[in-house]
Protein: Phosphatidic acid phosphatase type 2/haloperoxidase domain-containing protein
Organism: Lactuca saligna
Amino acid sequence: MRMSSQSVLKASYASVEDERQSDRIERRSSLIPQVISGEMPEIQLGAHTIRSHGTKVARAHMHDWFVFIFLVIMEIILNVIEPFHRFVGAEMMDDLKYPLQDNTVPIWAVPIIAILLPLVVILIYYFIRKDVYDLHQAVLGLLFSVLVTGVLTDAIKDAVGRPRPDFFWRCFPDGKGVFDPVTSNVMCTGLKSVIKEGHKSFPSGHTSWCFAGLGFLSWYTAGKIRAFDQRGHVAKLCIIVFPLLIAALVGVSRVDDYWHHWQDVFAGGLLGLTVASFCYLQFFPPPYDIDGWGPHIYFQMLAESSNETQTGSVNGLNVAPLEIENVRMHSRGGMGMGVSDDNSLNEMERGRRR
């Protein structure tokens, strides 16, 4: 009985997957008559550049950009306000006496690593394919990934107020500890700005930002190179893991510089990668999906444009399943539409003319 129930579950799961696959194929089959008749909508020809469709796409996401501006203001406020000053007793100072030293990765380099580097890759893909839908969704997803991560990171930093490993030297730059005689809490004599920064250990901002931006880049790259096409190309995995390695090394540098405890780095990396995953999947299908190479909005506009063309013209062509497979958008090896059998298309064209 147990074996039979498992077989039924597997069969039902396979049936659902077959239905999803057939729906996608059916959606692509609606494009074939337009390919043959020369009535392919502009969006399907790749002529959707910044100049032709940029304003339209930006207006469609106007509310998202308003939210983006709001998050920028929130991030500024969270960096200005004073964090919670957690109790730090004299007996706790033994774990907070690591040397105060400069950052291996300076703070100005974090936006370059987390935003500029992924943005360069996104722009390169745009100049190759001229797809403003992909460009807009990728840029918006990247910025939201980093900014949402930044807001969450700084909000947690301010609320937790965990002291950094070098807090002693921030609090007492002369090396002479001063503590309250009643509570034994620290009575810092250092600069206020340095002490303020000393209460922002958890989680690591460098790490969360880098994992947010480079994590998004890994998702984006995986979709574009079809890393999960089940063809066994390990080199593709190396490409998508490389950005994560850079983010991990940034996190390691934070521990090496004694600016963070290892728990801060772990939490920051987990936070950034989680937000990056949610933001990517908000705009793009999963990389292992058959539509994983393009944004959701591209296929929505594609379907709308296809329906408008079909309703505006009379076309009695019937497309067989075999012919559907002969026309693929973004075949496994490339970024454009591939036609695998010219003879079948010629036969279809002759049938249409009759």
